[in-house]
Amino acid sequence: MAEVMSQSEIDALLTALSSGELDAEEIRKSETHTKIRSYDFKRAMRFSKDQIRSLSRIFENFARLLTTYFSAQLRTFVQISVLSVEQLPYEEFIRSIPKMTILNIYEVFPLEGKFVMEINPNIAYAMLDRLLGGQGTPSSEVRPLTEIESTVMERVFIRTLEIFKDAWLTVAELTPELSAIEINPQFMQLVSPNETVAVVSLSTKIGETTGMINVCMPHVVLEPIMPKLSAHYWMDNLKRVREHTSDEAAIRQRLSRAEIPIIAQLGSTVMVFGELLQLAVGDVIPLDQAVDSQLILQVGHQAKFRVQPGLSRGRIAVQVGEVLKEGVAENE
Predict the structure, then answer these.
(1) Whole-model pTM?
(2) pLDDT at 38
(3) DSSP of 246-293, one letter per residue?
(4) For position 327, what pLDDT does the model report?
(5) Cβ neighbours of residue 78 closer than 8 Å, sequence gap 6 or more
(6) Is 120 helix (H, G, I), strand (E, B) or coil?
(7) What 8-state DSSP symbol labels residue 42?
């Protein structure tokens, strides 16, 4: 908004014009003169402020979900929040992270290209120490991960993919997959050095250990969904999602993730306590179930299926043969 001049300033300007101190023609020329602004093509600003704000909102939700997830997994105090959302050349991002760090590389379908999540060694080793039974103390030296440590880290961060997907639902339906875990950023060439990337920095605290988690997203990968990052689209879509997500659908989603015990009972028998005390290695206990008959599979302690026991890939398994109707007794 243009500045409003006070009455004293107006009087001073009129006095200067009438005395010849200022030339009205020169003022007019200066106003119409094209203003030149320097532009660095190596730091091309390809994300608008509106899009940066949308990314910030998405990752604030992501940070809240991550906090809940890691708190449950590590069983300690975890706090994650969005520190900044910046756009910079990919080469500058690579230079800003440690030479030895944890890099999770994701493919994000249906987008063509990859994202990367960089976990500061302080945070990564604190997670590992906590998951392997320690107090969550980071390692004093940065070293390559062992095979066991790589497997543990992979399992932990594969589960964050659903969280990432949920955080983006208001904008686009993305399906991320973990493709690799790297240690040295020099071996990770996602895009050309001058390509603009959006880097979201998440301030992370695990117990007494602090560090950063950085998510790098190249502009060329996000380009197909860039129009959806506008505030207008984001708010409209959020409203549509809320309107179409009923209480029933939310309950079904929660129930689908609920754990329930499944028991295949081989048989049962009754004996006196004195016989139980006299059992020794090699004794045979006769059951009320014939060897060639089907077993009853209980779901939540309710008989639901008749099954045949066997092996699948070297593991004990059962094959469902019949669905029991509600109210059928187990001994039928």
Answers:
(1) 0.58
(2) 61
(3) -HHHHHHHHHHT----EEEE-------HHHHHT--TT-----SS-TTS
(4) 47
(5) 67, 70, 71, 204, 205, 206
(6) coil
(7) G
Q: How far apart are CA 118 and CA 115, in angstroms?
A: 10
In CATH, the architecture of 49-255 is: 3-Layer(aba) Sandwich (3.40)
CATH classification of 262-323, choosing from 3.40.30.10, 3.40.50.300, 2.30.330.10, 1.10.8.60?
Answer: 2.30.330.10
Quote the DSSP letter at residue 43.
Answer: G
Q: Where in the chain is the domain with CATH 2.30.330.10?
A: 262-323
The answer to whether 282 and 266 have CB atoms below 8 angstroms apart is no
Residues contacting 128, CB < 8 A, separation 6+: 149, 152, 153
List, run by run, the mean pLDDT of 10-residue segments along the chain (332 residues). 61 71 63 56 70 89 91 87 90 86 89 90 86 75 76 85 88 87 81 89 88 91 84 61 60 77 83 87 84 81 85 84 67 49
Domain with CATH 3.40.1550.10 in the chain: 49-255
Report the C-alpha gap between 293 and 306 in whole angstroms: 10
For residue 185, give every residue at least 6 positions away whose Cβ sits within 8 Å of its Cβ, in sequence order, or none: 94, 97, 98, 99, 101, 103, 118
Beta-bridged to residue 305, according to DSSP, are: 297, 323
